[in-house]
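Q: What residues go here?
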């Protein structure tokens, strides 16, 4: 077996160990979340009930309620385990000289905080705006009775995308340090990046209203600029 195959084998072995660690950590956190599922339920329903307080989410199949309770416990476990997950993922990257030791822990915490910031921004501003847009089509012929499973899927995927978007400065930092992109290239192609950002915002926003697209695109542009400046601090 040559050196390259040795490296691939060691990488796959390391990947397997990290996946097992993440699985155990998430499983333990999910058990913890199960005992607080009522609190999680409150957070999930709050944006909807704040706009439509007289309503409630429904389940339409025999197993949907059970499935949803398990789902929110597992996803809550993933949420609690995010700092550990970020640490394990970053440690897989070929960035030993860039991030090591205590710096690895710091970067993992920073990644978690950026993700949480995106989630909070989405939960408090974007989700209410999108829900108001969808609920405006309710009339005497149409009454909003949303399935809990569909609502949760909509909510969590939107939160997830915004969390990832707020990771953009850190992602650009790593791409620059790994020589995949360079700061001057990012700066030179800024206008194309902004155009792509607004196009992507049109596809990723939960509603077709311009306000939701702007609420997504503006943070992406801001974090793109922050990413350029952070990347420019490290010259080769």
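A:
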């Amino acid at each position: 077996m040559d050196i390259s195959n040795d490296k691939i084998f060691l990488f796959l072995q390391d990947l397997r160990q990290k996946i097992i660690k993440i699985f155990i950590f998430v499983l333990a956190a999910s058990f913890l979340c199960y005992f607080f599922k009522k609190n999680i339920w409150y957070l999930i329903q709050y944006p909807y009930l704040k706009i439509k307080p007289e309503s409630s989410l429904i389940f339409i199949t025999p197993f949907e309620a059970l499935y949803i309770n398990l789902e929110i416990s597992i996803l809550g476990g993933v949420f609690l385990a995010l700092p550990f997950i970020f640490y394990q993922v970053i440690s897989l990257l070929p960035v030993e000289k860039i991030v090591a030791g205590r710096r690895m822990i710091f970067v993992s915490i920073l990644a978690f905080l950026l993700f949480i910031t995106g989630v909070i921004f989405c939960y408090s501003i974007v989700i209410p705006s999108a829900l108001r847009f969808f609920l405006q089509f309710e009339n005497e012929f149409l009454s909003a009775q949303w399935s809990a499973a569909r609502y949760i899927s909509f909510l969590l995927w939107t939160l997830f995308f915004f969390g990832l978007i707020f990771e953009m400065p850190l992602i650009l930092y790593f791409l620059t340090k790994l020589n995949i992109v360079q700061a001057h290239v990012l700066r030179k192609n800024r206008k194309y990046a902004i155009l792509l950002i607004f196009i992507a915002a049109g596809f990723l926003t939960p509603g077709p209203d311009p306000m939701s697209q702007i609420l997504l695109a503006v943070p992406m542009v801001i974090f793109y600029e922050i990413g350029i400046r952070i990347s420019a601090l490290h010259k080769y």
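A: Context that may help when evaluating the design: The CA atoms of residues 15 and 92 lie 7 Å apart. The chain has ten helices and no strands.
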